[in-house]
Amino acid sequence: MIDCATAYTRDFVLSSLPPAAVRVLEVGCGEGSLAAALTDAGLEVTAIDSDPEAVANARSRGVAAEIAEWPDFGGHGYD
Predict the structure, then answer these.
(1) How many CA atoms lie within 13 A of 5 on its CB side?
(2) Which spans in the chain are helix H?
(3) pLDDT tens digits for 8-32?
C-alpha cells in the first residue's frame, strides 16, 4: 500500500502523460516510492538520484534506479 501523497502524485503523473506513454524518467527519486507506484501502474520507469543511499533504497523496491544528476543524465527516449 502506498501513502496518500504518493498516490496523489502517481495519479497526477498518469493523468498528465500522453495515452501511449510507456517510458518515464523520474528525477530526484529519493527512496523510489513514486517510481515503484508508476512501475506498478505499467510504466517503464528509470529513476535517478545523486544520493547513493537513496538509489540503493529505490533499487530494493525493484526500481530501475541510477546514481546521476540532472541534467547531466545521458538517458533518452522518455515519454
Answers:
(1) 1
(2) 4-16, 33-40, 52-60
(3) 999 999 999 999 999 999 999 999 9
